[in-house]
Input
Amino acid sequence: MQKKFKVEVDCANCAAKMEDAAAKVDGVNSVTISFMTQKMVLDAPDDRYDSVLKNVVKTCKKVDSDFEIQM
Output
């Protein structure tokens, strides 16, 4: 399942670092984080989507503690 989320990212470099880190989270098929559009697109298995999303958010907050996501 692929979903889009509005996010708050401080800079393009942070977005790139978060995208790289989030792509390594178990269960992530693909992820893109855009500083310009302030959006994240996450593709993960339907049956594990909520837990994968939670781990992606936790990982992104490790890269930039100001990272916010609107669900």
Helices lie at 12-23, 49-63. The first helix runs from residue 12 to 23. The chain has a mean pLDDT of 96.
